[in-house]
Amino acid sequence: MKLKPEDLTQQGYSLLDKLDHSELVPFVRMYIRKRTKFSVLYYFCNIASVALIVFYFIKYNGSPGFSIGKGFSYMSYGLAFTLLLIPLHEFIHALAYKSQGAKQTSYDMHLKKFYFLAMADKFVANKREFQIVALAPFVIISSSAIVGLFFAAPLWSFAMLGILLMHTACCSGDFAMLSYFDFHNDISVVTYDDKENKVSYFYAKQN
């Protein structure tokens, strides 16, 4: 959006919620449990990842050089490698923000609470823009892992499956934010980050 935070009240928006980033984890837990299309999609993708893993174990069971233990070992490689993809995940968020018009992006993290986030300071994003920002890493990284299944050797396909499973699970924050917008689907919601104070604001007006 071309609106600035200080323009929101003049355009009929009023403060809906204020999210301190230190409270991000309980926020995610709350909205990922709401019955919205994005929370349902999140759980479906996780279940589908597990189902795909089961399918691959059945597919290669009894194949030369394959064992259940080796399958789990290679899958654990993928789980561990996903942690190294966190900077890439957040970088994709930042690129998506810039694609929507944000000028300044930055990153924040809290290792104890295990959250990482990309921010676009004072950039007001509407629902459509935020959907692009939130879904970009999930679509790019998870799709890449699925494509990798078609080219990886049998055991290494389990590493791809580990990446798919772990990355999908780690996208809970993105889907929770999308769930928040969907939960308030009856009103027009916009959001922006305050980098200095580590707060995200949500403003809304009637459709």
What's the structural blueprint in terms of helices and strands?
Elements: E1 14-20, H1 24-32, H2 37-60, H3 68-84, H4 86-99, E2 105-110, E3 115-120, H5 127-149, H6 154-170, H7 172-183, E4 187-194, E5 199-206
Antiparallel strand pairs: 1-5, 2-3, 4-5
Describe the structure in your own words.
The protein is an alpha+beta fold and about 210 residues long. The protein has one domain. The chain is built from seven helices and five strands. A three-stranded antiparallel sheet has the order 1-5-4, with no helix packed on it. A two-stranded antiparallel sheet has the order 2-3. Helix 1 crosses helix 7 and helix 2 (about 35-60) runs antiparallel to helix 6. The chain is elongated and about 70 Å long. The two termini are about 15 Å apart.
Average residue-wise pLDDT: 92
Give the C-alpha Rg.
19 Å
Q: Which overall shape is indicated by the principal axes computed on the Cα atoms?
A: elongated
When the domains are counted, the total is: 1
Helix content: 55-70%
Q: Enumerate the spans where pLDDT stays under 50 for 5 or more consecutive residues.
A: none
Write the element-wise H/E pattern from the N-terminal end onward: EHHHHEEHHHEE
Distance between the termini: 16 Å
How many helical elements?
Answer: 7
- Class by helix and strand content? alpha+beta
Instruction: State the total count of DSSP E strands.
Output: 5
Beta content: 15-25%
* Most strands sheet: 3 strands, antiparallel
Order of strands side by side in the largest beta sheet? 1-5-4
